[in-house]
Every structure is written in structure tokens, then in C-alpha cells.
Design goal:
Elements: H1 2-30, H2 44-66, H3 70-96, H4 104-128, H5 132-137, H6 143-150, H7 152-173, E1 179-183, E2 186-189, H8 190-212, H9 216-239, H10 242-248, H11 257-271, H12 273-284
Antiparallel strand pairs: 1-2
Length: 295
């Protein structure tokens, strides 16, 4: 039975990747730059660049689960935690955002679908693939792989940091915000905002590589970077006003500013969990990082 559930899980993840690949193809060939598309009014090129890494991640993980590759189980854990985070944000904002339809039954059905896809299924994956009998199916005979799995947390921190750099790079090339509060009432716009995202991209990439090489300097920089991120996020959560929110997201002008501000604060509070977790993990693994990094 457990083998069947593993294969069905892999098929499900692969199916999601194929669906997302289809959406990318549709946006690339059938949408114009001015066409409204999810999540906002982005052009097709931005959609392709944004969702292509996720598509590849889903397809490789799904195929890996079907093939019972040891790394795919860890990849699925990361994916499940990510889905839970997104599902929690969507669920909370779904309850506070004004209903897009007058049909109460349709709204309940939509919420139930979101809850099932982003909450129930990820929790099932986390519980089911953590079981000892299921874990044995993915156990690798290669000792070098087992050694790598022991430092999986370090690899995860490096990947998360690198993804931050990649997204910052794309935000610099494809502006999502007209203005962005970086600290309280200090805003960046236009060329300054591009430079800011390029600097973030460079810092994240440098730290990610250093963490992977177990460099003590990267360990310290990563902690400082995440502490600064937490500090700035807390300041912005309490200082950003309703008027500021409407200026930052003109694409969502149909939504009341009070609702947007609530969404911003909820997302900001939940977003603090990642840097806090990274800092806690790095402190617990301090002895692993060396003054002289591995080559």
C-alpha cells in the first residue's frame, strides 16, 4: 500500500508541474504584455521567468519520488513546508478579502479547495514520508549521499538564500513595484530601486555560495543579513500606512486599502518565520563552519 501511495504522490507532483508548464506555454504564446494575468498585470516574459524554476522543481521532484530517489523526499519536504506557508497566507487573506462573487456556496467551495490543496495534502506528505517504513524505500546505499543528507539543513539554507538572490535579480530586471518602503518612511523608486535589488541579488548569491562552502564569514554575514531583514520587516509592519499600500500596489486598486494593509501585515509577520529559523539553525551549527572555507 505504501508503494502505491508513494507512486501516486509522485504522479500528483508531476501532474502539477505539467499543469504549470501548460500555463507558462499559454501565457507565452497567447497573452500580450497588457493582458491581465495572475498574480498581477505582469507580462508573459515575467510569468515564464517566475514560474519556470517552480515548474522544473515540481517535475524533477515528482519523477524523483516515482523513482524513489533519496533526494526527492527532502525536496518534497521543502515543497510541503513552502505550500503550507502559502496556504496559510491564502487562507487568512481569503477570509478577510471581500468576496469576488455573491455566491456564498462558491466561496465556501473555493476555500475548501484551497485548504485541501495547500494545507491537507502538504501535511499528509510531511507525515507520510516521515514514516520509517516509507523512509526505508528511499534509503540510498551510497555512503557519500548519506553524508550529504546529514548536512541537508546547510544545503537548504544555501538554496533559500540563493533563491532570494535570483528573485531580487528578476525584480531588478522586471519591476514589480513602482516604489518600495525599505525602512519606515524611506522609499526607493526607479533606478534606485533597481540598484537596491541588484545589491540584494549580489549579497544573497555571495552568502549562498559561502554557506555551501562552510565559510565562517558567510555564516556571520548570513546571520547579520537575516537580523537586518527581521528588523526592517518589523519596522515596516508598524509604519506602512494605508496610503502607502495603495501606492505600492496600484494593480490592486479595486481592493480596499484597509484589506491590503491587513494582508501586508499578516504576510509580513509570517515572513519573519524564515529568517528566524535560518538564524536559529546557523547558530546551532556554528562549529561546522570554518575560518578557511572548503574549496
Amino acid at each position: 500500500m505504501k508503494n502505491i501511495l508513494v507512486i501516486l504522490s509522485g504522479i500528483y507532483i508531476t501532474f502539477l508541474g505539467l499543469v504549470l508548464a501548460g500555463m507558462i506555454a499559454v501565457s507565452l504564446f497567447f497573452l500580450d504584455e497588457g493582458t491581465a494575468s495572475l498574480p498581477m498585470n505582469y507580462n508573459p516574459s515575467f510569468l515564464v521567468i517566475s514560474y519556470l524554476p517552480l515548474t522544473i522543481w515540481l517535475l524533477t521532484t515528482g519523477i524523483g519520488i516515482i523513482s524513489k530517489k533519496s533526494w526527492s523526499r527532502y525536496s518534497l519536504f521543502i515543497m510541503s513546508f513552502f505550500a503550507l506557508f502559502i496556504g496559510l497566507v491564502i487562507s487568512i487573506t481569503f477570509l478577510f478579502f471581500p468576496a469576488p462573487t455573491k455566491s456564498h456556496a462558491l466561496r465556501i467551495l473555493s476555500f475548501a479547495l484551497i485548504f485541501f490543496l495547500f494545507i491537507v495534502i502538504p501535511i499528509f506528505f510531511l507525515i507520510f514520508f516521515s514514516r520509517k517504513k516509507v523512509k526505508e524505500l528511499f534509503k540510498s546505499r551510497d555512503k557519500s549521499r548519506i553524508k550529504t543528507q546529514k548536512s541537508f539543513g546547510i544545503l537548504l539554507v544555501s538554496i533559500i538564500t540563493l533563491l532570494g538572490g535570483i528573485f531580487s535579480f528578476f525584480y531588478a530586471l522586471f519591476p514589480v513595484y513602482e516604489k518600495l518602503p525599505v525602512f519606515g518612511s524611506i522609499f526607493l523608486t526607479g533606478f534606485q530601486l533597481k540598484v537596491y535589488f541588484f545589491i540584494l541579488a549580489a549579497c544573497n548569491t555571495f552568502i549562498a555560495i559561502g554557506i555551501l562552502r562552510l565559510a565562517r564569514s558567510a555564516w556571520l554575514l548570513c546571520i547579520i543579513y537575516n537580523l537586518a531583514s527581521i528588523f526592517v520587516s518589523i519596522i515596516n509592519i508598524f509604519t506602512v500606512s494605508k496610503e502607502t499600500i495603495s501606492e505600492i500596489t496600484p494593480q490592486m486598486s479595486e481592493i480596499p486599502n484597509e484589506t491590503l494593509l491587513l494582508y501586508y501585515r499578516i504576510y509580513g509577520v509570517l515572513g519573519l518565520l524564515i529568517p528566524i529559523a535560518i538564524i536559529a539553525y546557523l547558530i546551532s551549527r556554528k562549529k561546522v563552519f570554518r575560518t578557511k572555507p572548503n574549496s
